[in-house]
């Protein structure tokens, strides 16, 4: 019989047996640290290669960004013409994010976006005149004029209609993802917010819950460098949003938000992971807010150098140039697509302008469901 | 540029001037809120403050309502006088927990002072929809420990705000955003504090009392002028503070006129009208010639679209006719 070993306070290095003295968290901690390293940053990469890409997809992305831009242009002129009840929240320089995101989603997936996501809504099938109508208080708006401006969405399009409070769509997205997992449905929920929105409890509680429950959700942060007038350095000291994924033990991908393909790739990876049971991801897409917070805001407080630098990165122009250079589309096709989009937006404005205002007689109905 | 002598000031300017006055005179007083710095706040109340007072005292907060309210509580306990600006009153809901559980109850639990002002633009008529138009007073009126101030005139705005800042209790200061640029007063704002909890009889009358506050004051006065043409004499009482509620002034007026209408913009159900009608009944029942009537918003959220919003928030003809009906009954 072997002599009894003298007990040591230090566990033997080569022992594979878990030591009873070692706190159980130690193992979990290392797993967490490993997960924390699952962070990719492609935001500084050169534009994603077009080689070997499905041309149908490339053209779909092009059509999407061009339509989004045509819609933005129309809304800016509608604001100036006094067509809108209040202000307009421009999605300029966000087109690639909205469109790349929607292209990576399936129709059955839930879309929980915030204010600068016109491109995604349009791609999913929201009629443009309904969005315009929302900014005009018209009866054709998705809420029939009960709510307005950017508060539109349609559950029949698997698209959530967010309230003003940001990012209230985040907890809702976790609920949709929860329902998908609960019922065994093959659906992913995509929630979108801005850099400033990440400061709120809703963001942290939702991402944490989704991580802990391994829900099929993707949390996108559109980092456009500013929240109303508050710059990033006042919003958070962390400098990056994707890095926050580490704290929740989930993966993160940071990408160039002016490159529609880079956004598509990042979102596709995150959505595929969620769909296959791999849990949530934070995707950070970097761009710049090229207008005021809303149209009434002249944004004099923005550093002109920043605007100048980002002004060179028009996501629509850049993509168009690449497609033409690669021979995916011709100059003429591009011009035709742009002109078709312009006409489409003008037609929508006509419908929105001529649509009636809502009838107030039944305003007290609908406070409760039947 | 030569500085021009201004002969009038708006409700919004009165608030800005009161803030500047207190910032000038008390280094412990600071302002935290989303975009209050370079942006000047969503309504430009604090435009130019960052340059004048610097980032130590004018603090751009992250979008973190819970965090701001909680920070104010700690700073107040540590001896400062914090003011939190909420961009819209609607977003106070995000800070409900620290306001109710940390800020409102602390003094009662411990005896420590909690001198905080929570400022917020509220109310409708700007076509801003169900989550940008709410009247929040009764959510908080139910909570012991909070004072609630709702100025209705440019003349009162600065004095009530300064009294709120100097008060040793948490004060919720609700500014009617529809009035910001629509009201003006002559001269320049007075920085004399106006005692909280004292109503103001803004128009004397003998036939009926309208009890109201905030934007309702102007609607009541307009109705009173209209009804005067028909020989109906309307007294208008501006509560100025919802809590403490100056029921004495209200009761004295009702004892004189024998009739009362309560007017407010918040939804009728469980609104201030319910409390005031009950108090009038308690204090002046035997003087009343008619039941107290309420004029308030319908019990629905506030819609965006103009015809819908107008159908929900009390409009001038409805206000005038209701007052006439009770006066003549
Ligand atoms: C809870 C809450 N607080 C404040 C606001 C007011 N608000 C609306 S948008 C906004 C800034 C949002 O910034 P960010 O999330 O970065 O999005 P961006 O507008 O830059 O796209 C603020 C403060 C709000 N809607 N909800």
UniProtKB/TrEMBL annotation, chain A:
Residues 68-360 form the Dehydrogenase E1 component domain. CDD domains: TPP_E1_PDC_ADC_BCADC. Its cofactor is thiamine diphosphate. Residues 1-23 are annotated as: Disordered. Keywords: Oxidoreductase, Thiamine pyrophosphate. It holds the Pfam family E1_dh. This is Thiamine pyrophosphate-dependent dehydrogenase E1 component subunit alpha.
UniProtKB/TrEMBL annotation, chain B:
The keyword Oxidoreductase applies. It comes from the Bacteria. The keyword Oxidoreductase applies. Its cofactor is thiamine diphosphate. It is an enzyme of class 1 (oxidoreductase). Its EC number is 1.2.4.-. Residues 9-182 form the Transketolase-like pyrimidine-binding domain. Keywords: Oxidoreductase, Thiamine pyrophosphate. This is Alpha-ketoacid dehydrogenase subunit beta.
């Amino acid at each position: 019989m072997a002599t009894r070993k003298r007990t040591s306070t230090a566990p033997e290095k080569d022992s594979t047996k878990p030591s009873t003295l070692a706190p159980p968290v130690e193992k979990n901690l290392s797993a967490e640290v490993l997960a924390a390293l699952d962070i990719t940053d492609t935001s500084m990469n050169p534009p994603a290669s077009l080689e070997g890409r499905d041309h149908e997809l490339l053209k779909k992305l092009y059509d999407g960004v061009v339509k989004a831009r045509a819609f933005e242009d129309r809304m800016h002129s509608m604001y100036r013409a006094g067509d809108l009840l209040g202000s307009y929240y421009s999605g300029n320089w966000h087109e690639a994010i909205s469109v790349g995101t929607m292209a990576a989603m399936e129709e059955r997936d839930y879309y929980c976006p915030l204010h600068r996501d016109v491109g995604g809504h349009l791609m999913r099938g929201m009629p443009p005149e309904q969005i315009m109508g929302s900014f005009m208080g018209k009866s054709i708006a998705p809420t029939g004029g009960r709510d307005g401006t950017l508060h539109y969405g349609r559950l029949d399009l698997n698209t959530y209609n967010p309230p003003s409070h940001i990012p209230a769509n985040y907890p809702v997205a976790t609920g949709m993802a929860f329902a998908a997992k609960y019922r065994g449905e093959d659906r992913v929920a995509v929630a979108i917010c801005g850099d400033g929105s990440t400061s709120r409890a809703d963001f942290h509680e939702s991402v944490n819950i989704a991580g802990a429950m391994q829900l099929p959700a993707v949390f996108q942060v559109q980092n456009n460098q500013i929240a109303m007038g508050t710059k990033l350095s006042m919003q958070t000291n962390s400098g990056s949003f994707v890095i926050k994924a580490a704290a929740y033990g989930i993966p993160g991908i940071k990408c160039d938000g002016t490159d529609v393909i880079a956004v598509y790739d990042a979102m596709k990876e995150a959505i595929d992971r969620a769909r296959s049971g791999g849990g949530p991801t934070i995707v950070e897409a970097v761009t710049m807010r090229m207008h005021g917070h809303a149209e009434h805001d002249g944004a004099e407080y923005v550093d002109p150098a920043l605007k100048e630098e980002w002004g060179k990165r028009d996501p629509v122009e850049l993509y168009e140039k690449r497609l033409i250079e690669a021979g995916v589309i011709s100059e003429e096709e591009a011009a035709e697509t742009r002109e078709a989009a312009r006409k489409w937006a003008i037609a929508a404005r006509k419908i929105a302008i001529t649509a009636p205002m809502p009838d107030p007689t039944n305003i007290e109905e609908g406070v409760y469901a039947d | 540029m030569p500085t021009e002598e201004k002969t009038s000031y708006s409700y919004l300017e009165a608030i800005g001037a009161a803030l500047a006055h207190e910032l000038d005179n008390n280094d412990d007083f600071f302002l935290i809120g989303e975009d209050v710095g370079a942006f000047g706040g969503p309504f430009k109340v604090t435009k130019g403050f960052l340059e004048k007072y610097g980032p130590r005292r004018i603090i751009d907060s992250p979008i973190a309502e819970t965090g701001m309210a909680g920070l104010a509580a700690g700073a107040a306990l540590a001896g400062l006088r914090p003011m939190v600006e909420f961009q819209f009153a609607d977003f106070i809901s995000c800070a409900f927990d620290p306001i109710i559980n940390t800020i409102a109850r602390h003094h009662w639990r411990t005896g420590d002072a909690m001198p905080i002002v929570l400022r917020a633009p509220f109310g409708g008529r700007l076509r801003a929809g169900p989550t940008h138009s709410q009247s929040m007073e009764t959510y908080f009126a139910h909570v012991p420990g909070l004072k609630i101030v709702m100025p209705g005139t440019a003349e009162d705005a600065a004095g009530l705000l300064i009294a709120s800042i100097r008060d040793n209790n948490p004060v919720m200061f609700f500014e009617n955003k529809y009035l910001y640029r629509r009201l003006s007063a002559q001269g320049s704002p007075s920085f004399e504090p106006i005692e909280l909890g004292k109503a103001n009889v803004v128009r004397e009358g003998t036939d009926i009392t309208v009890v109201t506050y905030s934007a309702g004051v102007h609607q009541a006065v307009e109705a009173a002028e209209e009804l005067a043409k028909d020989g109906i004499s309307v007294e208008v009482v501006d509560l100025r503070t919802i809590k403490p509620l100056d029921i004495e002034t209200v009761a004295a007026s009702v004892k004189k006129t024998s009739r009362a209408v309560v007017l407010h913009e918040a939804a009728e159900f469980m609104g201030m009208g319910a409390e005031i009608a009950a108090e009038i009944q308690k204090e002046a029942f035997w003087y009343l010639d008619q039941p107290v009537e309420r004029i308030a918003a319908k019990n629905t959220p506030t819609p965006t679209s103009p015809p819908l919003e107008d159908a929900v928030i009390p409009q001038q003809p409805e206000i005038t006719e209701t007052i006439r009906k009770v006066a003549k009954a």
